[in-house]
Amino acid sequence: MSFHGTFEHTLDVKNRLTLPAKFRTELRDGIFVVRGEDPCLSIFPAQSYEEIVGAALARLNPMSKTARDTKRYFYANADATELDSAGRITLNVKQLQHAGIEGRDVVITGAGESFDVWSPDGWRAYEEELTGRAPELIGALDHTA
């Protein structure tokens, strides 16, 4: 399954986020909440995240400093969790700070093998920049059908 769409949601008072119903089946076997380069949280099905990280690390010399640093980055910034019975996950303070989420409102955006949780202002700024770069990104695909 690929995650698609953009959704406006609200955290409850315990910082729990109810995930879109259409995403929940794919997440039933566990989730990783990942703090990455962008100011958002990326949510992966556990198996997908393990496969993606494994494939990325497989290309590195396991004895190199780059491999050690990359492993630490991927694993230290990924928190394993599960959906509760109401289809929610709890986001901790460190995760919220990383994404710049200060209030209760969030935006959930599909990203293919994962989806992201943004602050509304963070998403607006990123979406504007991304839309401006769309011709460049699409042009870089440079293939014929």
Taken from the alpha-carbon principal axes, the silhouette is globular
The string of secondary-structure elements, in order, is EEHEEHHEEHEEH
Mean of all residue-level pLDDT scores: 94
What is the helix tally?
5
Proportion of residues in extended strands:
15-25%
Characterize the largest beta sheet: strand count, sense, and whether it forms a barrel: 6 strands, antiparallel
Secondary structure: helix percent: 25-40%
Number of strands: 8
If you compute it from the alpha carbons, what radius of gyration comes out, rounded to the nearest whole angstrom?
16 Å
Give a short synopsis of this structure.
This protein has one domain (6-139): Transcriptional regulator MraZ domain (Chemotaxis protein chec), CATH 3.40.1550.20.
Explain this structure to me?
By secondary structure, the chain is α+β, with helices and mostly antiparallel strands. The protein has one domain: Chemotaxis protein chec (3-Layer(aba) Sandwich). The chain has 5 helices and 8 strands. The protein has helices at 21-24, 46-58, 65-76, 93-99, 120-139; strands at 6-10, 16-18, 31-35, 41-45, 78-81, 88-90, 105-110, 115-118. A 6-stranded antiparallel β-sheet has the order 1-7-8-4-3-5. The model has no long low-confidence stretch (mean pLDDT 94).
Throw out a few tags for this protein.
5 helices; Chemotaxis protein chec; 24% strand; 8 strands; two-stranded antiparallel sheet; 145 residues; 6-stranded antiparallel beta sheet
Write the layout of secondary structure elements.
Blueprint: E1 6-10, E2 16-18, H1 21-24, E3 31-35, E4 41-45, H2 46-58, H3 65-76, E5 78-81, E6 88-90, H4 93-99, E7 105-110, E8 115-118, H5 120-139
Antiparallel strand pairs: 1-7, 2-6, 3-4, 3-5, 4-8, 7-8
